[in-house]
Input
Amino acid sequence: MRDATELPLKLIRANLELQLRIAALIQDNGRQWTELAGRAVGDGRVEHEAELRDLLGTNDWQALAALPANAFWRQMQQRIGDGQELARIAVGAQTSFAGGLVDALQAWQRETADALASGGTAAAGDAWRAWLEPWERLLSESGPAASGRKTRGGSRGG
Output
């Protein structure tokens, strides 16, 4: 006879591990965005100080008159680079988050299926695994690495 508390404990453990992994992913993602914002603020402060130094160091009116145009082009070039870097970081952060979420859901699915399989007969375990198989396929197809592998027009299994 099996222990009546074994199955609920395994299911609770699987759910708690999923929650912990998702919380860690959210925290890591938030940290990445906070670092990016801090870097942007720091860069803006440095640029502003450089412009003020240029303004204070100007000795003639012609150089003073050229400062706005020079600052405009310098900032324009900097903003293009900043935009490219922001896009690169954003794509990396979201890809990492999505991949981690898929991994967490797949681990949760395996742990849940194993817990349900161990809580009943072998036939019940096989039935649970068969029921969860389409979900596993969906998660593996929706992961970041799978985005280029499968097309929407592909065959659907049932």
Remarks:
- Confidence is low (pLDDT under 50) at residues 147-158.
